[in-house]
Amino acid sequence: MRYRITAGTVMTLDPAGTIHRPGQVSWENGTIVSVGTAESDRRPVDQTIHVPAGVVMPGFYNGHNHAAMTLFRGLADDSPLFEWLQQHIWPREARLTADDIYAGTMLAAAEMIRSGTVGFADMYFEMDAVAQAVADSGLRGWLARGLIGTQDPDGEKLAESVEFARRWADQADGRIVPMLAPHAPYTCPPPYLAQVAEAARKHNLGIHIHLAESHQELADITRQYGRTPIELASDTGIFRNRTLIAHGVHILESDLPALAGLVGGVIACPVSNAKLASGILPYRLLRDAGVPIGLGTDGAASTNTLDMFQEMKAMAWLQKLRDGQPDGFRAVDALRAATRGTAAVLGFPGGELTTGSPADLIVVDGRQAHLMPEWDVTANLVYAGVGSDVVYTVVAGRILMAEGIIQSFDEQAIMRDVVSRVAHLTD
Amino acid sequence: MRYRITAGTVMTLDPAGTIHRPGQVSWENGTIVSVGTAESDRRPVDQTIHVPAGVVMPGFYNGHNHAAMTLFRGLADDSPLFEWLQQHIWPREARLTADDIYAGTMLAAAEMIRSGTVGFADMYFEMDAVAQAVADSGLRGWLARGLIGTQDPDGEKLAESVEFARRWADQADGRIVPMLAPHAPYTCPPPYLAQVAEAARKHNLGIHIHLAESHQELADITRQYGRTPIELASDTGIFRNRTLIAHGVHILESDLPALAGLVGGVIACPVSNAKLASGILPYRLLRDAGVPIGLGTDGAASTNTLDMFQEMKAMAWLQKLRDGQPDGFRAVDALRAATRGTAAVLGFPGGELTTGSPADLIVVDGRQAHLMPEWDVTANLVYAGVGSDVVYTVVAGRILMAEGIIQSFDEQAIMRDVVSRVAHLTD
Hints:
nine-stranded mixed sheet; eight-stranded parallel sheet; 15 helices; TIM Barrel; Urease, subunit C, domain 1; homodimer
């Protein structure tokens, strides 16, 4: 099947920032076969979608998520961090079944598809249920079980993670990429991280880890080990694999040598970092050092929304505040972080609309009061757009949402299922 | 006509924070006549609206706007501030006709009604056109022409403002409240501010002024006058009238004595203050001093969106970052600022759903993936909600939007008109 979308605006986000007005994108077998002005490809197609007031652009890659935590969205919000974890989240997580986690991940999938996300990197548990949700929803998933080194003395859970990777590597038309996820330096001592690094090398897996998230972590790790979280992680060898560093708020200039050999990059989570009062990513420091920077939401239990438009806004607002000037960090920087940025951290070719790229794209309805007039479509999308402006979501060439209606699964049934499951989690 | 909305949740935002599930709100002649559980009022009504998955709550009051600047949304975004003003905004503002300003204000009205705003405080020029847009759209407006003291040597524009107030005070069923708006201390020298204060007293008008917005202003005013912007303004006598201080980012602890007698309060504009890198409001300082605090968007040329849900998010995120802890500023604090907070600054009785209050209310559609499950409806609204979740907007008892469709004017015609006008503003 060959498909084509024609629209008022096609924002390619290619390196030159090319915009076609009006424009078209055509794809076949999950790959883009042409991009250009409206009349640039006249070959016949099997299905044409015409959105005159639409903006076609690459879909978002959410670089850090705990998707099933939609189940806990808003639970005991605004509490002190440890009270929240110990009294509210952990006791309920202990009761979650695989079916609960499937349902929570499907709810997250609905929210992500609705708000233009085409793939996400996830760290949680019962990952077979998460992988099944990725398979069923049509999204892409970079999936890993969170490993707590202090609770894995014999490396059994690490071994299970490798098994999980074997089991799912070739499933769902290649939309699932298994990874290894040592949770954080304060839960995974250096010898365990070294074990994970070795397993990653041996099985050719990427690594997903929380690093340099809070000031507390920086202080504790530095006191305990005499090295920063980044230096400590680097010393264990994990950066010799592709590594996704989630957060990175407290990366210091003195950490740059330790990051020099990093394949992968840093996923900024500005909403989570603001809401938990963790701080603001040193974006400029990392960018100038050539570190790829993507964008992620963190789990909905702390961030509340999986809408990448909110993350783009938060990233831009906070970077401008950090800079102390309004003209350094621009709208397009946020848009690139949310698309090509995360994809680059993951080593995935998505994030731009160019021939040969994966057909992971979305259409935003530009004919709405809050997106008019159109002096600058990039500024409109980043600073005024919201997830619900998305009307089409296409992943690997498959139309997951059309005219605002999810096509790949029964969203209403998922919402009903979540409501009944949450009733059992309420004491 | 008597109306009633019944819904799954009625969030009254009364002082006790009462929530009825399910609940009802009834109103007549623009005033709420009963609020309670679903069966709490069985008197017959002329129209019933039933939204089983809806959340009924007070509408938002946007405390600081330049509504017609929707015409410049996204124009030369991310530029240095003075380049942006001098090269892009001011030359185009000079060309705006009254009809342009009417169209821009109507576009803003569409965006505000769609995102649950029921009233706004506006400072711009050609205010008869703005007032006409308020009359036509059905919103409430606290309206004032921005006065540049340095360009008003004979007080002619001040006199025109008083005339404007006379002309509109009793129009549009009392939905228009004229004010006086000396622009800022760096454009209105102290003798001019004193003149405005005198006129305000004489004609019983409130005052709307930009104060303590940027570090530059604080530094310049302090150097020039030996007093902070707040102290300077206080000395001119303007605070003896009801005064709406827009921004207030750089209010110092030493300013509190000057604020002690203030009737009115401060309107936080967190998105604008972040986007222009102005800083973060000292919320806790002002709250502890008993200063009423509301919320506003500033104009869409700098903030890009008039969605008060974005302001609530930004306010909460930034206050948590400023506090350095996640549990001080809570979701409900943002919600109260956006509703009762702004109303209190304006001296208006709105902002809560109680018998005798103005029937200014909205309904949010809670049955959406990003607003589920419902551990905490307040957290869901503030941290995950967006303007487009609003399905009904009621102002002074009149239904301005029903099921997501604006009832009070032809939104499509306004959008077409704006597009054609903007074409003339493009060089």
